[in-house]
Design brief:
By secondary structure, this protein is mainly alpha-helical. Helices cover about 45% and strands about 10% of the residues.
C-alpha cells in the first residue's frame, strides 16, 4: 500500500452547547484512531494476500478481517456524527424531511421522542435514523459495535453516538438523557437534509 487510503476529516466543533470542548477534543482523537487502524488493517490484509495466505483457516487473516468491520464502521459513523453537529445547532428540518418524519412517525415531535428512546437504551452503541432506499421508509435503529445491527444498504440520516465516551467527561453515566438533549441542541440540519436528498457522499480518501 503506497499511502494510507483514508485520512481523518477535520471538524470545527468548539463551543457546543452542553458538550465540552474537552469532550470533543478527546472524541476527535478517538475518531482519528479509527482512521489509523482502518488503514493499518487494510495494509495488513494486502500483505497477507500477497503472501498467498488469505484463507479462512489462517487465524491472523480471519481476525484482521473481522476487526476491519469494527474499525471501518467506527470511522464512518463518527464522520456522520461530527458532521451533523454545529455549535448551538444550525438550520431546521427541511419540508421534505418533516413530511417524511410525519409519514413514518406521525410528526417530528413523535420521531424525536422515539429516537431519544433508542438513545436511552441500556448498553453502548449508536442511535441512527435510517432510510430504506427501496421504499423511502424512515426507521430508528440501535447499532452496537459499529458493525452490529446496521441494516444493509440503508442510508443513515441522523447519527447520534451514545457510547459513554461521547459524554462521560460532561455527565454521569446515569445522565445520558442530558447528553441526548445537548445533542439535539447542537444538531446541524443542513447535512441531514442533504443526506435525505442525496444520501451518498464522498469518503475521506487520502
Amino acid at each position: 500500500m503506497a499511502h494510507p487510503i483514508y485520512k481523518a476529516r477535520e471538524f470545527s466543533l468548539s463551543g457546543l452547547s452542553g458538550i465540552s470542548d474537552r469532550t470533543i477534543e478527546m472524541h476527535l482523537g478517538l475518531y482519528q484512531g479509527y482512521v489509523k487502524n482502518t488503514n493499518l488493517l487494510l495494509e495488513q490484509l494486502e500483505e497477507i494476500a500477497s503472501q498467498g495466505q488469505a484463507r479462512g483457516t489462517n487465524p491472523e487473516y480471519a481476525e484482521i478481517t473481522r476487526r476491519l468491520g469494527f474499525e471501518y464502521g467506527g470511522m464512518v459513523l463518527h464522520e456522520y456524527y461530527f458532521e451533523n453537529l454545529a455549535p448551538k445547532g444550525r438550520g431546521e428540518p427541511s419540508q421534505e424531511l418533516s413530511a417524511a418524519l410525519a409519514q413514518n412517525f406521525g410528526s417530528y415531535e413523535k420521531w424525536k421522542e422515539c429516537f431519544m428512546g433508542v438513545g436511552e437504551m441500556r448498553g453502548v452503541g449508536w442511535a441512527i435514523l435510517y432510510r430504506d432506499p427501496t421504499t423511502g421508509r424512515l426507521s430508528n435503529h440501535w447499532v452496537g459495535l459499529h458493525q452490529d445491527g446496521v441494516p444493509s444498504g440503508f442510508d443513515p440520516i441522523v447519527v447520534m453516538d451514545v457510547w459513554e465516551h461521547a459524554f462521560l467527561l460532561d455527565y454521569k453515566p446515569s445522565e445520558r438523557g442530558k447528553y441526548i438533549e445537548a445533542f439535539f441542541a447542537n444538531v446541524n440540519w443542513d447535512p441531514i437534509n442533504a443526506r435525505l436528498r442525496e444520501p451518498a457522499r464522498p469518503r475521506a480518501a487520502a
